[in-house]
Amino acid sequence: MLGGLGGYLIYIVLLMAIPIWAQSKVKNTYKKYSKKATSSYMTGAEVARKILNDNGIFDVQVEETRGMLSDHYDPRKKVVRLSSGNYHGQSMASSAIAAHEVGHAIQDAESYAFLRFRHALVPIASFGSNISFILILAGFILGMLNLALIGIVLMSAAVLFQLVTLPVEFDASNRAMAQLVSTGVIRNNEERETKKVLNAAALTYVAAALVAVAELVRFILMFVAASDD
């Protein structure tokens, strides 16, 4: 009994530690490379605009947004939003993040399959992530396994969304590196350092996917065990 409880506690600690470690890695890497300017001295906004123009994408705007590392691409409004530090910054971190978000805009313009699939999953993934845990918990407590199964199915959709996000993000980062090099924003040894920023950011998505899969597997095993009783 104690062994089982100990194993469960270790599992919970790991679930909490992995995302925290990934976020810490991102923040530390960003902090380090936000102090190192690129040889081109272009701001994140200038980098984003140049890459968009070079790829013939003129209907996407580049805007400043509040918050730290709140950068994102809004496919509905066709806007690349960069946090103030990255919008005005001339650092490797600013250039890397700006190029990554533009990578999503390029994916959108090219109808990248995984991006389209992720967009299609948004409604059910959002619904599933909000209600699945409640249904699963209620199902096990009340002994209503069908209710728990519905929750597991909905959670599966949310987990699938996390998994589909991985190729979308990795592809955007690959596009970012290619664009930064081809446009001359970064040169020589800057490539290695800029890639560290993109790799650190990718860790957050990997961590989220690992945690989501682990939780889903745990509930599936609980459902199987309860069904056998």
UniProtKB/TrEMBL annotation:
It comes from Virgibacillus oceani. The keyword Membrane applies. The chain crosses the membrane at residues 6-22, 120-141, 147-168, 202-226. InterPro entries: Zn_peptidase_2. Keywords: Membrane, Transmembrane, Transmembrane helix. Coiled coil: none annotated. This is Zinc metallopeptidase.
